[in-house]
Design a protein that fits this description.
alpha/beta; 5-stranded parallel β-sheet; globular; binds xanthosine-5'-monophosphate
């Protein structure tokens, strides 16, 4: 949920700082960059809202296991026999929180997964498979695709698109919450950088996810004192799959920012399908986990092409693959020529509406990573 609620501000510096802070802590860093702190034992973690200064960085399965055991005991104490609600996006933080709570309180946890239609191919299915089928979660799946896409129809302004996605999400989640009886707690995937950023005045902390006044819940935040790299290790220890725990960054407004201008269902589908091909080929060619972020964009213009001797008038698909440490400055990954040829072939033959593939070789600055 986190990403959705920060809007891009008009002030470029503020925007960059915000993004910098957000992403600096949101991607696995080499262990050499992590500080060695001592993991605080129970008695030292009485104030659970604050990371103990001497807490050891969680870098091993054993440390993750100790943290999980400690948190589970605390969650049981905090929640008792009451019910907890969680917006489960399938992102790293909410997935780890869900897995932890399922272990602690089983079906007292109610997860709500909202499919807003801007997720990547296979994501909603994976959430259902992992959480409902494998972990036995009490999961409510909300198909809100039409609702979001209808609201977004014809909207070209990037900020307005972001706003619609964020506010509609809260609306859908609140509606689901009101249907449920006996919920007293709201679980959130707040992590320690969120707290540091809100203390530094960089980002307003989205406590209670901006829910309306009539929905008042006590918060359960089991990964609140962890950095992102620690959340991933804890997630792995909880048995979550690697492609959920080590995901590349994905913006809150999802594929919506990769379908520039007014989103149409056919162009969105072309983004989703080409992104799936790119991810599949990166995984096959050992680039997954090596390249920082990679995706496709389908802009809103058409050009002439030819297929089977017939004239076509279709969109181009842009490939973007970048590396960075802080997202303030970004370099471009130069892909092997054979892979480019293969991608061009697959995307133009398999994705409806695409007759041309372009590669974006622009660093940041002058370009940003996303197109909107
Ligand atoms: P830009 O495009 O500003 O992106 O160079 C830098 C990084 O931030 C991600 N990004 C977002 N993440 N909500 C998010 O949660 C957003 O609105 C958003 N916009 C950009 C982008 O994917 C990249 O990793």
């Amino acid at each position: 949920m986190r990403g959705i609620f920060y809007a891009r501000t008009g002030d470029v510096f503020a925007r960059e700082c915000l993004r910098h802070m957000w992403l600096q802590n949101s991607y696995p860093r080499p262990l050499s960059q992590t500080s060695k702190l001592c993991f605080g034992r129970r008695k030292r973690m009485d104030n659970r809202n604050v990371r103990p200064e001497d807490m050891e960085r969680i870098t091993t399965p054993a440390l993750a296991k100790a943290f999980i055991e400690d948190q589970i005991a605390y969650i049981k104490e905090q929640v008792g026999d009451k019910k907890v609600l969680l917006a489960l996006s399938g992102g790293v933080d909410s997935s780890v929180v869900a897995a932890m709570l399922i272990k602690a309180i089983g079906d007292q946890l109610v997860c709500v997964h909202v499919n807003h239609g801007l997720l990547r191919k296979g994501e909603p299915e994976q959430v259902i498979k992992v959480f409902r089928e494998e972990l036995g979660a009490n999961l409510i799946y909300v198909d809100a695709v039409d609702r979001f896409l209808d609201k977004l129809a014809g909207v070209t302004d990037p900020e307005e698109k972001r706003h619609i996605i964020g506010s509609e999400f809260i609306e859908v989640f609140a509606e689901e919450a009101r249907k449920l009886d006996g919920i007293e707690f709201l679980a959130q995937g707040t992590i320690w950088p969120d707290i540091l950023e809100s203390e530094a005045g960089i980002k307003a902390h989205h406590n209670a996810g901006g829910l309306p006044e009539d929905l008042k819940f006590e918060l359960v935040e089991p990964v609140r004192i962890l950095f992102k790299d620690e959340v991933r290790i804890v997630g792995k220890e909880l048995g979550l799959p690697d492609n959920m725990v080590y995901r590349q960054p994905f913006p809150g407004p999802g594929l919506g920012v990769r379908c520039p201008g007014a989103i149409t269902r056919d162009r969105l589908e072309a983004v989703r399908e080409s992104d799936a091909i790119l991810r599949e080929e990166f995984a096959k060619n050992g680039l997954e986990g090596k390249v920082w972020q990679y995706f496709t964009v389908v802009p809103d213009f058409k050009s002439t092409g030819v297929t089977d001797g017939k004239r076509t008038f279709n969109w181009p698909c842009i490939i973007r693959a970048i590396n960075t440490t802080d997202v303030m400055e970004v370099t471009v990954e130069h892909l092997p020529a054979e892979l480019i040829d293969h991608l061009v072939n697959r995307i133009t033959t398999e994705v409806a509406g695409i007759n041309r593939v372009l590669i974006d070789y622009t660093p940041k600055p002058p370009a940003t990573v996303e197109y909107e």
